[in-house]
Amino acid sequence: MKALVYDGPGRRAWTDHPDPGLVDDTDAIVRIDAVTICGTDLHILKGDVPTVERGRILGHEAVGTVVATGSAVTGRRPGDRVLISCISSCGRCSYCRTATYGQCRGGGGWVLGHRIDGVQAELARIPFADTSTHPLPEQVTDEAALSLADIMPTSYEVGARNGRVQPGDTVVIVGAGPIGLAAITTSRLFSPTTVVVIDREPARLSAAKEFGADVLLRPDEDPEVAVAELTGGLGADVAIEAVGIPETFELCTRLVRPGGHVANVGVHGQPATLHLEDLWIRNITITTGLVDTSSTPLLLRMLAAGRLDTSGLVTHRFALDEMDEAYDVFARPQESDALKVALFRT
């Protein structure tokens, strides 16, 4: 088969690779029908994730068709069309038993494209198939389902839910990339009064407007003053950090009102300063998190019922064997205006 293989920092190749086989009796082999690229994959290619070994197949967001199952798999069978979760779940450990699948201690968690081969390939081995894949209703397209592999549950769980968005809130989202845009959609499920989005790229601010943002700001427009004016001097009820750099995290801590919530979603590679000398007296709650994907069944039901809109996230489409071109487009959003790219089996 062909697969996208990591060969050390700055090096990748869409190349021949042995087909995967069943290793454990809870495995399934899935033919990849649609797959996407995550910003985390770009971090890996930069060498920011040293736990990823050379020779690893990347990718953790895909839709596919089951072609083989291990003897212990009872809920999936060949021919089933499934969403592959970015998080694998053993279903047995203490974390999985509380639906904290991202912290699985039984061999799951974020393993695909990280500690084991991922899904940017023609075929993939999926561990714990019964608990790490989701059957797809006929009315849900492959492209629509792709967003539920990672970014929609991430923005819902780590952003809107951890941030405790409530009806009538003012929500500020810093960063209008795919996660930030998904955070607009998932925050709106809780009926905030105002959603403010801050980003430096005009194309991404335009996308934020289309996704339902009420107020658009650039970093050079003094967002602290603007948010204070919108809220009678109090600040935002919730600030969602969706970039992953120190400046944006520290900005979020300055944008929230006393008693407000900062929900950090971005993946940080550098330390950020936590100004406790200012924050301790303001009753600020700061949350972080790796997605658990416990919300995926709920979001999938909403998608199938037409109550969740994932359209607009995919801006560029490719055949699976155009993986190199897709990476180039996704890695240059300032030039390509790419949000999410999707690749399909032809």
CATH level 1 name of the largest domain: Alpha Beta
Helix and strand element order: EEEHEEEHEHHEHEHEHEHEHEHEHHE
Major pleated sheet: 7 strands, mixed
Count the DSSP helices.
12
Determine the CATH topology of the largest domain: Quinone Oxidoreductase, Chain A, domain 1
Binned, the helix content reads 25-40%
Strand content is 15-25%
Can you tell me the number of structural domains? 2
Which whole number gives the mean pLDDT? 97
Low-confidence stretches: none
Q: Name the CATH architecture of the largest domain.
A: Alpha-Beta Complex
Q: What is this entry, summarized?
A:
The chain is of the alpha/beta class and 346 residues long.
Describe the protein's architecture and organization:
It comes from Amycolatopsis suaedae. This is Alcohol dehydrogenase. Pfam families: ADH_N (PF08240), ADH_zinc_N (PF00107). The chain has 346 residues and is an alpha/beta fold. The protein has 2 domains: 2-150 and 293-344, Medium-chain alcohol dehydrogenases, catalytic domain (Quinone Oxidoreductase, Chain A, domain 1, Alpha-Beta Complex), CATH 3.90.180.10; 155-287, NAD(P)-binding Rossmann-like Domain (Rossmann fold, 3-Layer(aba) Sandwich). 26% of the residues lie in helices and 23% in strands. The chain is built from 12 helices and 15 strands. Strands 3, 4, 5, 6, 7, 14 and 15 form a 7-stranded mixed beta sheet that branches. Strand 11 (236-241), helix 8 and strand 12 (256-264) form a beta-alpha-beta unit. Helix 4 crosses helix 5 (178-188). The longest helix is centred in the middle third of the chain and has 11 residues, at 151-161. The two termini are 14 Å apart. 50% of the residues are buried. The mean pLDDT is 97.
